[in-house]
Write a sequence for this structure.
């Protein structure tokens, strides 16, 4: 693909704009729903989604990543992958419905039976769109993907807000969870205009299944590691506690998840295409990595320094008990910005077994941290989470980059400079907060202090850090013409 650079830039920018829209939609819907519903309603749904997330990883079986990572893939292979996904998704949906009474008994909450049954339907919706989404990624049609995901989130958010205003309580959140994958899948089918054929045997599926299975096991271990605390808090501290922790975690997770999704989807596709060219691979990776850090570090600092204002403005006065939890979790925004992109590196190079080994070492470490902090409630768990993640960063980086085109020194140099600029900008913004905080209402002061932080950070990054060329290159890449996004499936 001769115009890979331009298509990567254009796709990345399109995804960033879409994720910015998604970020605003998620934030806006959260602000409204947090005022219409209470911690208990969020907690009830959170108890179930902690489990659905585990099974949701299995319905993909890593086959979408396998389809994107391969240099070439045939129609027969894609069709077979589709039917495997559908079989797995349907089986998981039925299994989760059967598990509903046991899940309700585990939490001592009878209302979870029907919540679990309805959410189980989402497995089928998701499974039907996995390979269609993978095709769009292979064709690097990221603008199309961005539009579909944004529209799906918008419709789901409207459904949830309408349900909450009508008095349906936690069922409004259930509706939002199920509606989004349904709309996305319909959009993927319409955009690809591809109808899967019948599954075939002996078409080179073994290596793809092995790749996908390893990714799935890795994702499963990582998911348990990152979400077990929600199950523990819900089980031992109740719906109100998990409601508070869950909203604080969501506020922290939204920017990280959106940025990693926006850049990671494009980076994985592009890096997979240049995996045999170490110089280009290093260049592409570090540029994407720098972009994620630049977009994430200011958010981390804002969440730590302005936690009270953020929670008050976004969630409302009845959620102020979540402030301490939110502040304790905030450092993980930066940590995930540092470590998540290393997943692109490992997967695009096919180093999925190394990724699995890393997850198997990390999981018991973070679980031990949760258990130590659990006796102190959500605050103790939040502190343990951030502490373990901070201690894990350096060994994680070293293990990931060993023997690759990206060195440990490359990563450290990419992190140190923006981190220093972020600290300086945060200090300036905090000084503004101290000087003007008593003069303004929460929303105006949050806008002022955040604006100062962002202007100072990006000013330092561009003019002191020498990043002007990089960002101007992104703009020029957007303006250059590229090939039509559409492509025959056979050339995907």
């Amino acid at each position: 693909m001769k115009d890979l650079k331009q298509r990567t830039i254009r796709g990345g920018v399109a995804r960033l704009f879409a994720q910015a829209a998604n970020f605003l939609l998620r934030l806006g819907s959260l602000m409204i729903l947090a005022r219409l519903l209470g911690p208990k309603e969020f907690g009830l749904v959170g108890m179930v989604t902690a489990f659905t997330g585990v099974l949701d990883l299995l319905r993909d079986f890593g086959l979408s990543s396998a389809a994107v990572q391969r240099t070439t893939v045939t129609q027969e292979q894609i069709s077979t992958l589709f039917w495997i996904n559908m079989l797995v998704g349907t089986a998981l949906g039925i299994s989760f419905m059967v598990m509903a009474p046991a899940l309700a008994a585990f939490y001592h909450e009878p209302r979870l039976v029907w919540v679990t049954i309805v959410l189980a339907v989402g497995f089928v919706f998701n499974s039907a769109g996995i390979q269609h989404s993978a095709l769009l990624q292979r064709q690097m049609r990221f603008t199309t993907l961005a539009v579909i995901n944004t529209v799906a989130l918008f419709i789901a958010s409207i459904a949830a807000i309408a349900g909450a205003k009508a008095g349906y309580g936690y069922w409004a959140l259930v509706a939002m969870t199920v509606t989004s994958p349904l709309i996305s899948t319909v959009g993927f089918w319409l955009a690809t205009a591809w109808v899967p054929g019948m599954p075939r045997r002996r078409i080179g599926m073994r290596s793809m299944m092995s790749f996908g299975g390893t990714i799935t096991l890795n994702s499963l271990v990582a998911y348990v590691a990152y979400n077990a605390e929600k199950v523990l808090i819900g089980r031992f501290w109740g719906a109100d506690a998990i409601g508070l922790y869950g909203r604080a975690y969501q506020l922290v997770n939204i920017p990280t998840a959106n940025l990693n999704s926006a850049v990671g989807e494009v980076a994985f596709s592009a890096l997979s295409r240049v995996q045999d060219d170490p110089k280009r691979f290093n260049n592409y990776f570090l540029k994407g990595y720098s972009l994620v850090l630049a977009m994430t570090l200011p958010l981390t600092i804002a969440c730590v320094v302005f936690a009270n204002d953020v929670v008050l403005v976004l969630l409302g006065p009845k959620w102020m008990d979540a402030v301490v939890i939110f502040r304790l979790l905030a450092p993980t925004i930066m940590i995930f910005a540092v470590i998540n992109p290393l997943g692109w590196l490992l997967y695009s190079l096919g180093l999925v077994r190394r990724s699995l080994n890393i997850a198997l070492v990390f999981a018991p470490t973070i679980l031990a941290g949760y258990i130590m902090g659990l006796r102190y409630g959500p605050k103790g768990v939040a502190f343990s989470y951030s502490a373990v993640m901070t201690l894990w960063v350096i060994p994680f980086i070293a293990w990931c980059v060993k023997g690759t085109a990206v060195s440990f020194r490359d990563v450290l140099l990419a992190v140190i400079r923006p981190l220093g600029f972020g600290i300086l900008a945060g200090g300036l913004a905090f000084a503004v907060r101290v000087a003007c905080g008593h003069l303004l209402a929460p929303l105006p002061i949050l806008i002022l202090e955040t604006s100062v932080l962002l202007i100072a950070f990006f000013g330092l990054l561009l003019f002191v850090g020498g990043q002007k060329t990089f960002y101007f290159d992104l703009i020029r890449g957007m303006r250059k013409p590229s090939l039509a996004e559409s492509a025959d499936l056979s050339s995907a």
